[in-house]
Each structure stands twice: as structure tokens, then as C-alpha cells.
TrEMBL record, chain A:
Residues 1-25 form the signal peptide. Pfam families: SBP_bac_8 (PF13416). It comes from the Bacteria. Keywords: Signal. This is Putative aldouronate transport system substrate-binding protein. PANTHER family: ARABINOSE-BINDING PROTEIN-RELATED, DIACETYLCHITOBIOSE BINDING PROTEIN DASA.
Length: 543, 287
């Protein structure tokens, strides 16, 4: 069966749209056509088109709540805004693939949601995407949230070489921490221990568990495929002030050194070495299952729920759905909580973006007579408090109720993520609200409206931590990007391979310097230099 | 000596059978099990927490049946079209006296190695106005070159004298094909029907590319969405409030859908098996 590889898609569509690119790339953005725009639209106003409009949009078919034509979402949206959305449906499983194909072929609908930052880059050169940063002035709610929540730095990470950004991301009021560790509290009690606050406590806790249960590995982790130690090393890296695990795998292998005001290579940072040493010690002392880095999630879950291990990486969802459910079956006396992420040398701080995936608009939208209305509509639905509440919770009195303090409760006959288990109707399946296509980000209150009490406690602890500064943008042009990828891939592979070898004891940590040397031989200096030059250039050009 | 070889053979083959059948039986067992046992990894060959509710849930989803019907329709129509075109093409190619025969073979074989690429293909189909019609599924893959070559080899192996005799008796080319050649080619026809039917039954990619209406999807897309969607990128690093539902629908519904989807094609196999074996062998030996 044919697969679309990124290269494949790039090559073919590059050739196809070359002509189009030449003619559109140089055009200056003009004032948006007025068309059916709403007069006097602004912050706090509900968008309502003066005449009925239809906007085409890409939409996925979610296996848990497949699209239905009779969703209240559609009819209520039309009632409030006078806009009908015409959907192009794609199965959730292969959404990204077809999304890319439609954009490349120039046949994507005007609004394309669920675009993860970075995914838009291959399509920019051809000019099919709208440089939306040129038009955000016409989106009052978006601008309002960016100013109010001081999101400019987060948005800057999306800027391309031309100084513009193309994705309208979902905006969060605060960094959202979700991943941490699930710990068996009944074992802690048995050992007379408190939940660990620091990574040293974490080590000590595992040690105590091992002493009591010498035949088991107290910590057997999941989320190791495809990135070994993805979640665990990410948390550890954050605590030590570097990028490891998922953070390392999903981004560039460079770290912003705020003191020196330049990027340095992540895999050779002293902090990175500390992370590796910490993990290696856990494995060496028999506290962490060496299979943690290669086993499937199911295997790790089974060890945890059958009482063979006592600590495992967790998020809010897996705590309830995987661990509690499994433990209830095997060992009803077991209790488990998600502990606040242990603290390391960086103290009570955290890093993270407050932007998430979002939407892109097609460049052809600006030739649409109703372009101004389109911007207003997108602004209202995705960025106004009213629009976000609507997309997530639906219609007051029908799908939810709100008390005086603003606390939201689902209506009696409506279930939403187990908040009303057993109710005959479901907010997502039957009404189309809380749909990942339309509900992104929002205020912390809105985000937390679906959280349980214990998750709220976790959130409060995490939200009290200080956010560390974000790395500045250092976008590359096309040629540089190609060169960077050629260097980046072997560098990252080498770091990840050796990280695993060091941790598992297959390579002696005494060889760290030799490892750093090997990286030098893989164009490390040239790569870091390229990124730093791009950073300086961007700073000079765009401030 | 002989008996020892037999023993070794038997052990080896039983091993292969076990390795092949285990995943299948595991899926069957999962389909009858309660979700909690699957999550905690306790289901192997025998269902735990036996129940039929999952079957009821899946079978009560109207979309599943609409898509199922589509698969049947697509498979039947596509197989019929494929059989007609492939047979005609293969028969023509099997005649050594045909002028330009090598070019015609070349045209077919060329497509085995080169294709226009995904995006041009998509643009072509959509500019022809075929998207969101059954034709986008049944036409683009109507000829499988591999099947074409197998058939051509088979036709080449038929005794020429038969056709000559029929020609002398006054039959035209179409008559010869329909009344002499095809009745003698039941084995290869059955094999080809099976090959085509299975591949169309299993296919999802063209439907994924060219269709964007739920009511037109084949069941393979329904199934793929259920499985890949639940275990895909979004479940790692995802948004727990929006996506927690996924984990719950996952394993036993997946198993049931898999069973329901493969069942019909599985039941056809034993009946076509005898043609299948002789058909493939015939083509191969004579080739």
C-alpha cells in the first residue's frame, strides 16, 4: 500500500504549486474585503453575520464521537452566528495524512483545524496558507487574550523566517501540566513514607520500596515507545534544566541558555549528563525496571496493576482509566494518586508553552467576498469566552447549568467524561460539544471545569510554580532547513541511542567525554552555529 | 527414519500453526471478554468475564452496517469490473501473433514500477469528478498487473488447437473466448476472483483518499478509525478531558469489529480453496 511520506508529498506538491507560489508570495496583504462582516464587532460581542453564510471546514470523524448531522452544535451555531459549516470529513486515524494531501493539492477547505505547530512549515513556501499574523488585528478576542495573558512570547515561537506565523494556536491562560507519576499510597503508608517532593525523595522512596520488596522493580515505566523514557526523562530534564525524553525527541536538539543569550547543544549539557546519571543510578540499583524504556504501555500497566511495580508515569486520564480500573480488579485495597512532579535543582519552576494545536486558513480565503466575516467568525468561535464555553459545554439550561460562582455542571441527563455516569445522553456523542475540532485552550477555569477534585489539587500545586522563559524564535529558510535536517537527524539519533546505553549500563558513564567527541564529529558545532545565526538574524530583522 | 522426519515435520508445522492462529484466537477471546480483564492483560486464549454486549453495541451502530453494506457493494462491483477488464486484457496479451503485444505488456508492467505520485493521482481523480462516487473506488485499481500476468500465462498454456478448431467451425474471437477458453479456465478465474475480492474487501486507502462522507465509507475505514484512532498520536500527550472516552471504547470493541469484518471473507476461503490451489499451480507450472 502506498504511503505518503513527507518527502514524497513535498516533492510532488512543490513542483505542482511552484507557479502558484511565484505569483502569490510577493503580494502585500490588503485590507480584508468587507463583504458580510458584522458592523461594530469587538471584544465581548457575539458574532452574527448580517446574512446567512457558509464556510467550508475540515472535520475529523472521531471514533468516540463520530460526527452527526443532528448535533445541537450545528443548529445552535447557525442560530447564534448565522453561519453554517460545510464539512469535509476525514477519519481521525489518518487525519494528518489527508489534511496534508488536500492542502498540497490546493483543495482544502478554507478552515483547517487540528494543525500542530510545525506541521504547517512544509506548505508555507508554496503560498497556500494564509499568513494569519497579518490579519489578527481583525480578530479582537484573539488579540485581547494575547495581551491579557501576555502570550506574545509563546506566539513568537510560531514565527517563520518571514517573521509571520501561519497557525492560529489554541491559547491557554496558564501552562498546563498533566504528566507526573502515579504512586501506590498504600505502599507508602506501609513504609511510613510521605509522597516524594524532590527527585532525591523519589530515589529514597524507590529504595525503601526495594528493601521491602527485593524481588520486584518498584518503578516500571510506560510511554517508552517510540521515545525511550519519553515521559519520565522529560520530567527529569525539566527539573534539571534541560530537554530530555519527549522534549528532546520532539524539538530541535538545542537548549536556550538565557544567561549566555545563545543556543547550546542539549545532549552535551552538564544538566543532561545529570539526568542520565540519575536514571542510570535507578537502573543500576535495581529500582527501575530496565524494560521501562522498551516495553509497551500495556505491559507496564499490567505490572503496575498486578502489584509487581508501585510507581509508573501517569496523566490524569491514565490514572483513572488504566491504573485505578486495573487495580480495582486485582487488588481492591490498593490506593494510588498522581503526585505533583518532583522538584529538582531548578526549584519550583516549570517550562511549557501556553499554545497548543490550532487552525490554519487557506490563502484563497482572502479572495472570498466574506473574508472579513470569516475572520470574525473564527475569532468568536475559537477565541471569545462565549465561543469557547459554547464549544466545550454547549447551551446553558440544555446541556449544562452554571451556579452563582460560575461552576459548571452538566445537565442531569447529560454525561461528560464520567461527570454524570449513566446519564442517557452524552455531551460529545449526542450534542457535538467538547469536540476536539472546536474546543481548544481557554481560561484556566474553563479548562478545569471538567477536572475532578483531586486533579484540581494537583493543578493548584503545579500552577503555583514559576514559568521559566521560553526560547526565542530561530526560524530557518528552506535551504538551511534542509541542511539542518541532514545534521540534526544523526545528532539526535546518537544522543538518544547513547542516552539509553548509558542508562541501561551498556556504556560506562566514564565514556561521557568520548561520547561528546563523537557528537563533534557529527557536525555539532556547525549545527548549533546555524541555529544561533538564524536567531541573530531574526532578532535583527524582526526585533 | 521416515517416522522421525514425520515427527520433526509435525512439530514444526504445529509450531507454525500455533504462531499463526494464536493472535486470531486471542482476538476472538477478547471479543467475548469484559473490558477490565483485557486492560489488565489477563485475556489469552479463553474469554474472561464472558459477555455478548460488545457484539450488541457494535451491531447496533447503524454506521457500521451502512459501511458494511458499502464494502459488499464495492467488492462485488469492483471484482466484476476487474474480472472483465483483466480477462480481456490477459486474453489479448496471450496471443503471440498480436501486433504491438510487447508494447501492451510494457504499458502494464510500467505501472508496477512507476506511478504518478499521490497528489497528482488525487488531482486527476478529483478533476474527473469521481470523488465521492463509487467509481473512484472501483475504477482506479481495476487491473492488478500481477493478476494480469498470472492470467496471461494461464491462457498461453491452453492448447492452441482447441481454439483453431473452434475458429474453423466458424466461431469469432468473442465466441472462442466465451465458449471455449473461459469454461476451461475456471481454476484461474476462481483464483482471480478470490484475489480481487480479498484485496477490495481489505482495501481502505482509495476510499480514504477519494471519499469524505461517512455514509460512503467501507467498513475497513470504520475499523481503522476505531483502532488506529484510539491508539494514535493523540492518546499520548493528549487532552484528558476531551479524549478520555477513547480508552474506554478501545480493546473489546476493536476485537468485535475485527471479527465481524473478517468473517465473511474467511468463510469464502474454504469454498474457493480447491480452485485456488490448482489455479495458482497451473499458472506457475506452465509459465
Amino acid at each position: 500500500m502506498r504511503q505518503v511520506t513527507r518527502r514524497h508529498a513535498l516533492l510532488t506538491f512543490g513542483a505542482l504549486t511552484l507557479a502558484a507560489a511565484c505569483s502569490t508570495a510577493e503580494e502585500k496583504p490588503t485590507a480584508a474585503a468587507k463583504g458580510a462582516a458584522m458592523e461594530g464587532y469587538g471584544v465581548g460581542k457575539t458574532f452574527k453575520a448580517p446574512q446567512q453564510l457558509t464556510f467550508p471546514i475540515l472535520h475529523n470523524i472521531h471514533p468516540a464521537y463520530p460526527v452527526k448531522d443532528d448535533w445541537l452544535f450545528w443548529s445552535e451555531l447557525a442560530k447564534r452566528t448565522n453561519v453554517k459549516l460545510q464539512t469535509t470529513l476525514i477519519p481521525f486515524s489518518d487525519y494528518d495524512q489527508k489534511k496534508g494531501l488536500l492542502i498540497s493539492a490546493g483543495q482544502a477547505p478554507l478552515i483547517v483545524p487540528k494543525m500542530y505547530p510545525g506541521q504547517e512549515v512544509p506548505y508555507i513556501a508554496s503560498g497556500v496558507l494564509l499568513p494569519v499574523s497579518d490579519y489578527v488585528e481583525q480578530m479582537p478576542h484573539f488579540m485581547d487574550k494575547v495581551t491579557k495573558w501576555q502570550l506574545q512570547g509563546d506566539l513568537d515561537t510560531l514565527r517563520q523566517n518571514d517573521g509571520k506565523y501561519y497557525v492560529l494556536p489554541g491559547l491557554h491562560e496558564k501552562v498546563w501540566s498533566d504528566y507526573s507519576f502515579a504512586v501506590r499510597t498504600d505502599i507508602l503508608q506501609e513504609l511510613g513514607l510521605q509522597a516524594p517532593k524532590t527527585w532525591d525523595d523519589f530515589h529514597a522512596m524507590l529504595k525503601a520500596m526495594k528493601e521491602k520488596y527485593p524481588d520486584e522493580y518498584p518503578f516500571s515505566d510506560r510511554w517508552g515507545i517510540p521515545t525511550p523514557g519519553g515521559a519520565f526523562l522529560q520530567q527529569l530534564g525539566n527539573a534539571y534544566g534541560t530537554n530530555a525524553g519527549w522534549n528532546f525527541a520532539n524539538g530541535r536538539p538545542v537548549f536556550w541558555d538565557d544567561a549566555a543569550q545563545k543556543f547550546i547543544f542539549t545532549g552535551t549539557m552538564p544538566q543532561y549528563k545529570q539526568v542520565v546519571e540519575y536514571a542510570a543510578a535507578l537502573v543500576k540499583e535495581g529500582l527501575m525496571d530496565p524494560e521501562s524504556f522498551t516495553q509497551k504501555d500495556d505491559a507496564a500497566n499490567a505490572k503496575f496493576t498486578s502489584g509487581k511495580s508501585f510507581v509508573i508515569s501517569s496523566n490524569a486520564q491514565s490514572l483513572v482509566n488504566d491504573y485505578r480500573k486495573g487495580l480495582a480488579e486485582n487488588n481492591p485495597k490498593a490506593t494510588v494518586v498522581k503526585i505533583p512532579v518532583p522538584v529538582g535543582p531548578m526549584g519550583e519552576t516549570r517550562t511549557g508553552l501556553r499554545t497548543e494545536n490550532g487552525i490554519v486558513l487557506m490563502a484563497k480565503a482572502k479572495d472570498d467576498p466574506n473574508f472579513a466575516a470569516l475572520l470574525q467568525f473564527v475569532d468568536w468561535l475559537f477565541y471569545s469566552d462565549e465561543g469557547q464555553l459554547f464549544a466545550k459545554w454547549g447551551v446553558e439550561g440544555v446541556t449544562y447549568t452554571k451556579d452563582a460562582s460560575g461552576k459548571i455542571t452538566p445537565a442531569k441527563d447529560v454525561d461528560m467524561v464520567g461527570l454524570n455516569p449513566g446519564a442517557p445522553k452524552h455531551l460529545q456523542k449526542d450534542f457535538g460539544f467538547g469536540n476536539g475540532v472546536f474546543a481548544y485552550g481557554g481560561t484556566t477555569a474553563l479548562l478545569q471545569s471538567t477536572f475532578s477534585e483531586e486533579e484540581l489539587e494537583f493543578q493548584n500545586v503545579m500552577n503555583a510554580r514559576q514559568n521559566r522563559p521560553l526560547p526565542p524564535p530561530a526560524p530557518l529558510d528552506e535551504l538551511e532547513q534542509e541542511q539542518a535536517t541532514l545534521w540534526e537527524t544523526p545528532l539526535k539519533d546518537h544522543v538518544q541511542q547513547n542516552t539509553l546505553n548509558f542508562i541501561l549500563g551498556k556504556r560506562d558513564l566514564a565514556e561521557w567525554d568520548a561520547y561528546a567527541k563523537e557528537l563533534e564529529g557529527k557536525n555539532l558545532a556547525a549545527y548549533v552555529d546555524l541555529i544561533n545565526k538564524a536567531h541573530v538574524r531574526f532578532k535583527e530583522k524582526h526585533g | 527414519m521416515v517416522s522421525r522426519v514425520r515427527w520433526v515435520n509435525a512439530t514444526l508445522l504445529i509450531g507454525v500453526v500455533v504462531v499463526t492462529l494464536y493472535p486470531f484466537f486471542n482476538i476472538v477471546a477478547r471479543s467475548f471478554s469484559a473490558e477490565k480483564y483485557i486492560v489488565s492483560g489477563q485475556v489469552n486464549l479463553w474469554p474472561k468475564g464472558f459477555n455478548l454486549t460488545t457484539y450488541q453495541i457494535v451491531m447496533s451502530d447503524p454506521v457500521f452496517w451502512i459501511n458494511y453494506r458499502n464494502t459488499v457493494v464495492y467488492t462485488v462491483v469492483a471484482t466484476a469490473i476487474s474480472m472483465v477488464v483483466t480477462t480481456c486484457y490477459a486474453y489479448v496479451l496471450s496471443k503471440p501473433h498480436l501486433r504491438g503485444r510487447k508494447v501492451l505488456i510494457g504499458v502494464a508492467v510500467f505501472t508496477m514500477f512507476f506511478s504518478g505520485g499521490l497528489i497528482p493521482q488525487y488531482v486527476l481523480i478529483s478533476n474527473l469528478g469521481l470523488t465521492n462516487t463509487i467509481w473512484s473506488i472501483v475504477l482506479p485499481n481495476a487491473i492488478s498487473v500481477f493478476n494480469l500476468l498470472v492470467m496471461k500465462t494461464f491462457f498461453e498454456g491452453l492448447p492452441r488447437e482447441l481454439e483453431e478448431a473452434a475458429a474453423i467451425d466458424g466461431m469469432n474471437t468473442y465466441g472462442i473466448l466465451a465458449k471455449i477458453v473461459l469454461p476451461l479456465s475456471k481454476a484461474v478465474l476462481a483464483t482471480m476472483v478470490l484475489f480481487y475480492a480479498v484485496s477490495f474487501w481489505n482495501s481502505w486507502f482509495p476510499a480514504f483518499l477519494y471519499l469524505d462522507k461517512i455514509e460512503m465509507f467501507p467498513v475497513t475505514i470504520y475499523l481503522r478509525n476505531l483502532i488506529a484512532g484510539a491508539t494514535g498520536a493523540e492518546s499520548a500527550g493528549a487532552n484528558p478531558d476531551v479524549h478520555s472516552e477513547i480508552m474506554q471504547v478501545a480493546s473489546n470493541i476493536q476485537a468485535v469489529t475485527i471479527i465481524l469484518t473478517i468473517l465473511p471473507i474467511l468463510m469464502i476461503y474454504p469454498f474457493v480453496q480447491r480452485f485456488f490451489v490448482s489455479g495458482v499451480m497451473l499458472g506457475a507450472v506452465k509459465g
